[in-house]
Amino acid sequence: MLTYDVVDVFAERPFAGNQLAVVHGSEGLTDEQLRLVAAEFNFSETAFPTAVSATSYDVRIFTPRGELPFAGHPTLGTAWALRAAGLLEGSSAVQRCGAGDIELAFEGDLVRLAAAPVSVGEFDRAVALRLVAGLGLAADDLLGTGHVASAGLPFSFLRVSDDAVGRASIFSGPKPTDGFDGTVVYALADGPHGTVTSHARVFIPGEAVPEDPATGSAAAAFGLVLADSGVLPEGGDYVIRQGAEMGRPSVLHGRVAATDGVASRVEVAGGVHRIGSGTMVVPGA
C-alpha cells in the first residue's frame, strides 16, 4: 500500500496553481509501476521521494508517459510535503534528482529552489515563426527572434503581445525537434518597485497534459532569457503569471543573478497548499 499527498504548487490559494501527487513508500517499485501511478493521477507530474533524512532526499519525477530528470513544481511541492510531515527540518534542504542536487529554502509561505544555468541563446527567426504559426498566431504577433534556454530542461521562448498570449492555442504542428521540449509564449510589463512581470503560457506538445498551468523549470530558464535579452542584464526579480486561461491561476517568483547579461544563478519560488491525502494499491500487486 502506498500513501500520497496532493498539493497545489505556485498557488496563492487552494485549487489553483499546478497539481502534484507526492507518493511515499515507492522504494522497490519498477519504472513501469512508477509510470502507472503517475498515469493514474494524470497530473503533469507525480513525485516519488525516497531516502529522506532531516536535510535531504532523493526523488524521481514522472509524467503520465515517462520520467523527467528535473521539474520545478514537483521539486517545491515534494519539499513542502516532506517538511509538513516533519521529515525535513530547518530552513533549507537538498533534493537529489536526475539533474543533480537542487538547493531548497523555506521562506515563510514560500518554497524556493536554486538552479544553475545550462544554456541560453537566440534562435533563427524562421524557427520562431514556425512555432508561432503552430500556436495559431500571426507573424506580426512575434516580438524579436525567440530564445532557447535551459536551467535543467530546455524550453523555447517567444515574446509576443499580451493579447497574443491569450489567443495562443494548443500546439497544432509536429513536436519541435530543435533541442527543446516545450514552448513558452510570454508578454512583459513593468511591475511594482521595478520588478519585471510576465503573462505566460507553456505548451508541451506530445505530452498527456499539453498545456501546463505553472512550470518551474521554464520559470528558471526564463531568468536566463531576461538576462541574455537585456531586460535584466545585471539581474533582478521577476514574476510570472501563468495558468489563468486553464482556470488554474499561478504565480511564480523568480530571481536571477547576472553580470553583463550573463546569468550565474537563478531561483524560483512559489506557494504550496495541501489539497488531500490518501492510500492506493501498488500497481500489479
Fold topology:
Elements: E1 2-9, E2 18-24, H1 31-41, E3 46-50, E4 56-62, E5 67-68, H2 72-84, E6 92-97, E7 100-107, E8 110-115, E9 119-122, H3 125-134, E10 147-150, E11 154-159, H4 162-167, E12 182-190, E13 196-203, E14 211-212, H5 216-228, E15 236-242, E16 250-259, E17 262-280
Parallel strand pairs: 2-3, 4-6, 11-12, 13-15
Antiparallel strand pairs: 1-2, 1-17, 3-4, 4-5, 6-7, 7-8, 8-17, 9-10, 10-11, 12-13, 13-14, 15-16, 16-17
Distance between the termini: 9 Å
Number of distinct helices: 5
Strand order of the largest sheet: 1-2-3-4-6-7-8-17
- CATH C-level name of the largest domain: Alpha Beta
**Shape from CA axes?**
globular
Overall number of domains: 2
CATH superfamily of the largest domain: Diaminopimelate Epimerase, Chain A, domain 1
Question: What is the arithmetic mean of pLDDT?
Answer: 93
In the CATH scheme, what's the topology name of the largest domain? Answer: Diaminopimelate Epimerase, Chain A, domain 1
**Any idea what the radius of gyration is?**
18 Å
Order of helices and strands: EEHEEEHEEEEHEEHEEEHEEE
InterPro entries: Phenazine_PhzF-like (IPR003719)
Pfam families: PhzC-PhzF
Protein name: PhzF family phenazine biosynthesis protein
Features:
alpha+beta; Diaminopimelate Epimerase, Chain A, domain 1; 2 domains; 5 helices; globular; PhzF family phenazine biosynthesis protein
